[in-house]
């Protein structure tokens, strides 16, 4: 059986930071749908976001990336930190569940082990194209799958709150920074990028205003090509101006929807 | 001698979370000046923001408030969490300085004590009216004082980076949420609130646009009163509409400067 980080922290506790971990909220977009990646650990009946412990030799950002890869097979995600969560009630559910969990490891652990104390969770979110992802679930997970953000299963600890705070941060972020480069085809129509923004913001956006504001940022360029989507409908295609797009990522490109 | 939280964590290590602490970036505004509160610990030659350890019985928000009060005498501050900082290089400076520091306590501590490991810092910022604050410095601080944000002294660890990230978050925040209620007199002129926004954003704002956008949010109300500031200058006074202001704090009141 493949070793998990739960086993590792029990065997090598001195290699990990105590009382602090990372939780990754992995959002996925595909064709007008926004989902979030959740896992259901074997020993438990509820779902969680994917998270894990931090090694003393790595930064919290490196931990977020290592955990995303080791527990889901996802690589090179652009993680954005949004906030940390920490209060003593986290350990009530946490310690009960952690005890069920550690039983799986087969390692004898005392009831007052420090990993049953309260952990501060540093939350990261990312946004990816979910149709392109091949999920590889972890050793101790019964399931790992995408859930629509408006139809989530029962969640453990404060993970529902963590997801809602991540979504708030993502929505604030896209009012200030460009998105779409890895979420749309290389060439796309205005209705396609319009749907992307509407889906993530969770609200309708006026067509004209949207197009006007987006064009004003300079991050997209109109091509001399159309896409045939019906007998009488051939909207123009657009692509990102990568230089302006990267500038926007660096310095902001306010859309203020 | 009054006991400090450094002493307490050495005497009662089991009462504190390990490897995670809070750092408070306390911004102060007064009459066109933006400052930040820094302390200079007795054993060290550089300055730091004010921070401290988290008790297992309190949330990270409660810790931020307790530390602000115990180390600076500041009460009832509205703290906003902005981000966490964590990487192994934090412990290089950190452990050297922490060792100088623990010598002060007179308590014998081994060289490999866990408090010399790397700590994840959860950053909070707040904004207050600095002319109304009576600072009470901590037991182990040589100095604790306000510094202009564009003229900071030499700072320890990554605290310069922490302050710059806090300022970025504050600036993003005021584009979406109202500020000013505790920073201006009950009645104020448009030039006064205009200066407040310009000072915090660190850039000039067009007079007309500023007034138009601010009035459009409904958070300020024009009074039928003027302020006499010169023989021929009597600008109108304004006050906040507290209900609209609170609504804005809850749901946002986009100014997008």
TrEMBL record, chains A, B:
<feature type="domain" description="Nudix hydrolase">
    <location>
        <begin position="17"/>
        <end position="169"/>
    </location>
</feature>
<dbReference type="InterPro" id="IPR054105">
    <property type="entry name" value="WHD_NrtR"/>
</dbReference>
<dbReference type="InterPro" id="IPR015797">
    <property type="entry name" value="NUDIX_hydrolase-like_dom_sf"/>
</dbReference>
<protein>
    <recommendedName>
        <fullName>Nudix hydrolase domain-containing protein</fullName>
    </recommendedName>
</protein>
<dbReference type="InterPro" id="IPR036390">
    <property type="entry name" value="WH_DNA-bd_sf"/>
</dbReference>
<dbReference type="Pfam" id="PF21906">
    <property type="entry name" value="WHD_NrtR"/>
</dbReference>
<dbReference type="InterPro" id="IPR000086">
    <property type="entry name" value="NUDIX_hydrolase_dom"/>
</dbReference>
<dbReference type="InterPro" id="IPR036388">
    <property type="entry name" value="WH-like_DNA-bd_sf"/>
</dbReference>
